[in-house]
Amino acid sequence: RGPDPSVELVRARMSGVRSKLFVLSGKGGVGKSTFSNLLARSLASRFPDKNVALLDIDICGPSQPRMMGALNEQYVEENLALMSIGFLLGSSDDAVIWRGPRKNNMIRQFLSEVDWGDSLDFMVLDTPPGTSDEHLSAASYLVSKTPGEDDGARAILVTSPSEVAIADVRREATFCKRVGLKVVGVVENMAAFVCPHCKVTSEIFPRDRGGGEKLSEEMELPFLGSVPLDPVLARACDEGQDVLSTMADSPTLAAISAIVDRE
Ligand code: ADP
């Protein structure tokens, strides 16, 4: 069987995108969409002359339109574009019953037919929890099958400090290995709490049990940082505000900056 022409077409279109960052998590509710949002916004603000796309392929639960405060529009900022299945669904219940081939079709269209502007430098992919059709599809288009070729595709694994969430991240890492997706590292979310009154960050879980950090060590993956549970962040996301300006100087943004620095 020769190469699938539709896959080749999408690959060619996406080949100029320097970084394709898959944000993955084993469980839902650990903050994957929140982190994708922060990451995309931070990249756009750190690299004003580069173009960033946030692609929301969480087909059964697209949350970026609300988080970005962009319920119907594709461009959020000058150099930040958002595309979400949420823009296309009449009702959020519509996509829940989609089967694999239909999801695959949708993802192919997102990658090949959306007008992402002249040149796209970064693409952040907000994915559904676990490893399902959406992940396999996106990986089939964005991860090169040629060993050693730099396709720019990489994964960031988001976890919360609980044991169950961490067990799921192991499965994510196995998935990445299987499809040939390089893992940048692990981000831990909600291990600490930022007090909205005094702004002090308090640890919630004992450090010696060390959730995300311990997991990273065990799996020999870089630990990228810990994003605290921050009521200001929760509210900014809920109301679709620009989290970067709402949260200037917060420890939460410092954690994200350290990750963006690697790009
Ligand atoms: P996922 O994409 O993994 O399902 P979300 O990003 O939608 O998770 O987060 C679930 C909920 O938790 C959202 O309401 C979000 O605003 C909130 N949340 C996530 N991370 C944080 C954080 N660090 N601080 C405060 N609230 C957070």
UniProtKB/TrEMBL annotation:
Its cofactor is [4Fe-4S] cluster. GO terms for biological process: iron-sulfur cluster assembly. Its main location: cytoplasm. ATP binds at residues 26-33. Coiled coil: none annotated. Component of the cytosolic iron-sulfur (Fe/S) protein assembly (CIA) machinery. Required for maturation of extramitochondrial Fe-S proteins. The NUBP1-NUBP2 heterotetramer forms a Fe-S scaffold complex, mediating the de novo assembly of an Fe-S cluster and its transfer to target apoproteins. Heterotetramer of 2 NUBP1 and 2 NUBP2 chains. This is Cytosolic Fe-S cluster assembly factor NUBP1 homolog. It comes from Nesidiocoris tenuis. The lineage of its organism: Eukaryota, Metazoa, Ecdysozoa, Arthropoda, Hexapoda.
